[in-house]
Design a protein that fits this description.
The protein has 373 residues and is an alpha+beta fold. The protein is elongated. Helix 6 packs antiparallel against helix 7. The chain has a 5-stranded mixed β-sheet with strand order 1-2-3-5-4, with helices on one face. Strand 4 and strand 5 form a beta hairpin.
Length: 373
């Protein structure tokens, strides 16, 4: 705000300062020239005409020339000529304006002085300088502005090129990662599915067969999601969105398939005010929390709660300590899951807390705004 005000003040100063100096020049010229009231009024009119020099530079310049010839508006004439040179690039026009100012300065007022002796001693060099200096200065400033504009355009063009190159590198890296994910993860998941199928065929125990069916179903679903992720990573730019994306209505299925002892209060699965981004974030929070329970607290009791308050969605997942004698699964953990949750929630303008409980359990709680997204 301050920068904007300072810019406005600077522009106003550049507009009014030449007008003030032109008026002072006219007033100062009254004494030595003994100008008449009409001549003074013409000079003052030329000075005040400078207020419109940016909108109509040629009209203002022509209005100032009479004052320059009378000797009461020389500064205004120089400013007007500079403005024309600054705004126009036509050489013929600039030469004509410069000659007009030079002639106005060179010819005496009144013209009857031409017949008097000594007129030939008038300095013609002053007329040339007064006409050429404003034109040269105006064109120099105009060329500087043009060069600045071209330099800015060149900088922006190079920035776009660098951005495109970075996107190309990113797309290449995404494609490489996609291939690695497909070659490694897909192979391992396929082996899991194959072993689950063999277990189902070889076992007569209904519970084992049911477990094997669940493993195969999860393996197939994992492969489908993996294909979607690989497709996204290989896509140029990588700006698409993974599909299908889970919503709150998918939470019951997630809880049923988790294999954990969960007490769930998820009436908000029919949240009508929640944008899709908020529903996806809430689903991922619960999903990551349940995954961490399986990793670090096998056999623990879990409580899942979602509450929609119209403008905010509260998500809470807490678990107790691991069951006595429960054997850890030994799953790898890089700590990236919780970091990803923090980033996802903060992008939505919400807040999330992950804290250890005194009883050895863990708490994940988040507040997600459901409006203004």
């Amino acid at each position: 705000m301050r920068n904007r005000l300072s810019e406005q003040h600077r522009r106003l100063l550049f507009l009014l300062l030449p007008v003030a100096l032109a008026v002072v020049d006219t007033i100062v010229s009254i004494g030595p020239l003994g100008s008449s009231p009409a001549e003074v009024m013409i000079g003052l009119a030329g000075g005040f005409a400078l207020l419109a020099r940016r909108r109509a530079p040629m009209a203002v310049f022509l209005a100032i020339v009479p004052g320059a010839y009378l000797g009461t508006g020389w500064f205004a004439a120089m400013v007007g000529l500079y403005t024309v040179a600054r705004r126009r690039s036509d050489r013929r026009l600039l030469i004509s304006c410069a000659l007009l100012v030079a002639v106005a300065h060179y010819l005496p007022y009144p013209l009857g002085i031409l017949a008097e002796e000594g007129w030939e001693n008038l300095n013609a060099e002053n007329a040339v300088l007064i006409s050429l200096v404003p034109v040269a200065l105006g064109r120099a400033v105009a060329m500087r502005a043009e060069l600045a504009t071209r330099l800015r355009e060149l900088t922006e063009s190079r920035a776009r090129e660098h951005q495109l190159a970075a996107r190309q590198v990113l797309a290449t890296e995404r494609a490489r990662l996609g291939r690695e994910m497909h070659d490694v993860v897909a192979h391992q998941v396929s082996l899991i599915s194959l072993q689950a199928g063999a277990l189902r065929v070889s076992s007569a125990d209904p519970a084992v067969r049911e477990t094997a069916d669940a493993i195969r179903t999860l393996s197939v679903r994992t492969l489908e999601e993996l294909r979607h992720m690989v497709g996204l990573l290989k896509a140029a730019g990588g700006d698409g969105e993974l599909t299908p994306q889970p919503l709150l209505t998918d939470l019951p299925r997630l809880i049923d398939e988790s294999g954990l002892d969960i007490d769930a209060d998820i009436e908000a699965t029919a949240c009508g005010t929640c944008p899709d981004a908020v529903e996806r974030a809430a689903f991922r929070i619960v999903q990551e929390a349940l995954t961490n329970v399986r990793k670090h607290a096998p056999g623990a009791k879990v409580w899942v709660s979602l509450e929609d308050q119209g403008h905010q969605l509260f998500v809470e997942v807490r678990n107790g300590p691991a069951s006595d004698g429960a054997e850890p699964l030994g799953l790898p953990s890089g700590g990236h899951g919780l970091v990803g949750l923090h980033e996802r929630v903060h992008l939505l303008g919400g807040s999330i807390a992950t804290t250890a409980r005194a009883d050895g359990g863990f708490l994940v709680s988040a507040i997600l705004p459901t409006r203004g997204l």
